[in-house]
Amino acid sequence: MIELGLSKMALIGAVALIVIGPEKLPRVARTVGTLLGKAQRYVADVKAEVNRSMELDELRKMKESVESAAREVERSIHTSASDFQRGLDETVAGLEAAGDAGFPLDEGASYPDGSPATAVVPSYRHPGKKWRLKRAAVPHWYKARAGVRTHVQSGAARVARFRPRRFH
After folding, report:
1. Closest by CA position to 13, among listed 136, 75, 48, 22
2. GO biological process: what's one of them (predicted)?
3. Does the structure show a pLDDT above 60 at 168?
4. What global pTM score does this model have?
5. Which of 95, 104, 105, 145 could cross-link with 109 by S-S, CB 3.0 to 4.6 Å?
6. Domain residues of the chain, as ranges?
């Protein structure tokens, strides 16, 4: 690229002053400055576009790698789910075979001795928690021993509480 030093710039300015003239030189200088600024912005935009396209290519490669990893995870999940399903089917088949052997599993069934088979379902019991009451994490006895305030008190009330008493 052309290196413009101070001496070369002075030579170009002197030639421009002679060729263009002192009346039109400021307008031409403004126009040249504007054109140079536009050229610099254009070059910067082209550089930014090239950088964006390079980043986009990198993102595409990353997207492909993530998609392939996701496909592999999905494949492994499907294989483990099918293995689990096969094991479950075998277990159910074994239980049905046991049910046919004298232990019926359907409703209205009875045990071999003739007694009715009833399912034991526990009744609902409320957990008994006081969910509206917020329980402190630190016990009150510890707060009392450590001198931690357990009640909220306004600033004015605190000042009044600790103000020295006057004797009349």
Report:
1. 22
2. protein transport by the Tat complex
3. no
4. 0.35
5. 104
6. 7-93
130-161 in b/e form (b: 16+ CB < 10 A) is eeeeeeeeeeeeeeeeeeeeeeeeeeeeeeee
Whether the predicted pLDDT of 97 surpasses 80: no
Answer yes or no: is pLDDT of 137 > 90.
no
